[in-house]
Every structure is written in C-alpha cells, then in structure tokens.
User: Fold this.
Amino acid sequence: GQQVMQIPQYQHVQEGEDFTTYCNSSTTLSNIQWYKQRPGGHPVFLIQLVKSGEVKKQKRLTFQFGEAKKNSSLHITATQTTDVGTYFCAGPKGGADGLTFGKGTHLIIQP
Amino acid sequence: GAVVSQHPSWVICKSGTSVKIECRSLDFQATTMFWYRQFPKQSLMLMATSNEGSKATYEQGVEKDKFLINHASLTLSTLTVTSAHPEDSSFYICSARGVGVQRGYTFGSGTRLTVV
Assistant:
C-alpha cells in the first residue's frame, strides 16, 4: 500500500537556526499537505501543494513539491520558540478519501 | 469557517465499558468525516471514513464491531469504542474536509481515551 516516509524523526535546533523536514511518497501524489501539531494539540492545516515543482512561502516557511510529485519539503528559516511542534506531511490515500500521514518530524528548539 | 468540534476532550473508562466520542462540524456540512487514531509520539492512522446516511468504510485491520461509527446527520459523526480494553487507550481525532479546494482537512481537538 501507499507509504509516506518523513525524515528526520527528531530535530534539535538552536533558536534562530534553520530547520528542514523531508517527505517521500512511494506513489505519485495528486497533492501533498502539511500539518503542524503542537504538543498536546491537534493537527492544524498549513498548506496544500498541487503542481509539480511548486514552491509556496508562508512568512518564514517554504514548502516545495518535487517534480515527480513524490517528494516534498518544509523549510523554516530562523526558527522561533513558537515553531515547536510536530510537522506532518500527508497525501491522499490511493483511490479513496482520507489521508496517509508521514511519521512526522518533532522540532525541538533550544533557546 | 470550517470548525470541527470534538467531545469529550478526555475520558477515563473501565475495561469492558463503551465510550462514545462526538464530532460536529459547526459552520459547514460534512457529508464525510474521518476518524484517526494516534499513539504517543506517533503518526495519525486513518481508522475509518464516516459517510452521512450510509455505512462507514473501515481501513484494513480496524474492527468495525469494536469501533462503531454513526453519521446520522450532515453535521455529526460519532465513534463508539465498545468493550474497551487498555490497549484501546489512545488519542482519537476526527476530521472533515475544509471548505474550499485549498483548505485541506480540518481536525477536531481530539479525545484522549484512557482505559483502566
């Protein structure tokens, strides 16, 4: 079945450093979505990428969708303590609704 | 817009009892809702797709008789964990597709179930 892999599982950074998480799907995706989950909270939708090679920015966050529509990345510039949380990528389940989530990257920021 | 309310936020129950979790779309109609399960420090796993007015579709390995789903209206889906056991302790989250093409999915606040 469809698999969505995400690395790294954990990332410790000093506040102000950059952060990147990578996502790779075993199948071509019609779109890829990114979510953020704060500790103790629920996933919150960040963005959806649809086009091959698409790049979108949200302030300090940059999202990319690969040319083959099988991989994606999220890059945060100059991390802040408010960026703490787990970042998940997710793709539509093949042939059905609902999402297949990556394992997530836990971002830990040291002041 | 596109707010999903989930209740209760947390529940503790005894082994063998049943627990019902409600998921409501507050400002939009959701013909389809999704139920996920998340263990600590792990990812979300889709359990089932809840369809208004018809039977839910369960993912492989999810027992439909144990996790009863009812989607009786366009704004309410319920998940009942029947005959709960300690291994059912988990974080259960519902979601619905957000409004608009680019809105992704909106998640409820989740229910932390502890079975003792």
